[in-house]
Write a structure and sequence with these properties.
The protein is of the alpha/beta class and 388 residues long. Helices cover 44% and strands 17% of the residues. It has a seven-stranded mixed β-sheet with strand order 3-9-8-7-6-4-5, sandwiched between helices. A four-stranded antiparallel β-sheet has the order 10-11-14-13.
């Protein structure tokens, strides 16, 4: 058995697909310390620069003093604290839904929603480039798993029209984590309403960044802000929000169904209440600090301008996720390593995270970056291109 495992690892190594953890010695920020060396980091999902914000640090300390450290039990036993409940109410109000439910992670939230709402007699329709958590949730539900080409709503409509399933769920990223592009929510929702399907929208990379006051992808357009009852909205809290966890917002009957049936909610210890206490501060910062989103917009424009002449092309994205398509996995690793040697962290993303032949550098921008940071990255990439 162990020889077989070793062989599989060797093959992965030979293919340039073996991943290695790096130990960060500092808080998440635009610069991080690894092995005693300072790096300029474009590798974090801390889009608004809140992960090390002094107000959040103070809020965590206050929360720990008030609620202790561990929750001690699951939400349905004895672990649902005032802090959890207050955050759920605040998250629902912030996103414009009747109710919200706190989960420990986005992966658990997606798993809980899809498996609680779909089963053997149902069908789940998923974009081909959805996050792994959505695909795994669809498989675990035992519903019929129907994928459609990326953003191809013509094919999706044909498959919705053809199904005889009892219940239909369309599940999609709002912002695709490795592409940086966005789903056409209005058209997707129109299809769901036409074919009486629920729309499960994963806004992990849009919450805090997109929409009025950072309220998420459903607040980009006025017609979406008055949420359809067909929408089930999921957002994570360890990216733009700077803390940890996730929440699902939806109609009361949906939330109650999740409380009663979502196994990833029922059978796990609740998150530390201090984190929920800190998240109340995070919501206030997201709402108040419009300058963070304005800074991100300037960074995106500067980066795109600085990389125009590269042999590798940026995928079309107006979000802080700016993927630089390389193609070959070994070449992507080489360029990432070349940046690292210049004190810059940009991860190489390879199969199976992305399709074969589409390895890329995933450049993640943050409001914490400075214009000179963007210039340093673009200069380094242009230098590496000249050496290729």
């Amino acid at each position: 058995m162990f020889a077989d495992l070793a062989g599989q690892l060797h093959v992965r190594e030979q293919q340039g697909l073996r991943r290695v953890r790096q130990i960060v010695d500092s808080p998440q920020a635009s610069h991080v310390m690894i092995g005693g060396q300072d790096y300029l980091a474009f590798s974090s999902n801390d889009y608004l620069g809140l992960a090390n914000h002094p107000d959040l640090i103070q809020a965590v300390c206050e929360g720990a003093q008030r609620y202790g450290v561990g929750a001690g039990a699951s939400h349905l036993v004895n672990g649902h604290s005032t802090a959890h409940h207050q955050f759920e109410e605040a998250a629902a109000a912030f996103t414009g839904f009747p109710q919200a439910l706190l989960f420990s992670t986005g992966y658990m939230a997606n798993t809980g929603v899809v498996t609680a709402l779909a089963g053997r007699d149902d069908a789940v329709f998923t974009d081909k480039l959805n996050h792994a958590s959505l695909n795994d949730a669809a498989l675990l539900s035992r519903a019929k798993f129907i994928r459609y080409p990326h953003l191809n709503l013509v094919v999706l409509e044909k498959r919705l029209a053809a199904t005889q399933a009892r219940r239909k769920l369309v599940i999609s990223d709002a912002v695709f984590s490795m592409e940086g592009d966005t789903t056409p929510i209005a058209q997707l929702l129109a299809l769901c309403e036409r074919y009486d399907a629920l729309l499960v929208l994963d806004d992990a990379h849009g919450f805090g960044v997109l929409g009025q006051q950072g309220r998420g992808s459903l607040h980009i357009a006025p017609e979406l802000a008055a949420h359809s009852p067909h929408v089930i909205y999921m957002a994570t809290l360890g990216k733009a929000a700077g803390v940890f966890g996730a929440f699902v917002a939806a109609q009361p009957d949906v939330i109650e169904t999740l409380i009663q049936s979502a196994r990833s909610y029922i059978y796990t210890t609740a998150t530390p209440p201090a984190l929920s206490h800190a998240l109340l501060t995070s919501l206030r910062l997201i709402e108040r600090d419009e300058w963070r989103r304005e800074t991100l917009s300037r960074h995106i424009a500067q980066l795109q301008q600085g990389l125009q002449s590269l042999p590798w092309k940026l995928l079309p994205s107006s979000t802080p996720i700016q993927p630089l398509l390389i193609g070959d996995s070994a070449e992507a690793v080489r360029i990432s390593q070349g940046l690292r040697e210049r004190g810059i962290l940009v991860p190489a993303i390879r199969p199976p995270t992305v399709p074969q032949g589409t390895a890329r550098l995933r450049i993640s921008l943050s409001a914490a970056h400075q214009p000179q940071d963007i210039a340093r990255l673009t200069d380094a990439l242009n230098e590496l291109a000249a050496l290729s």
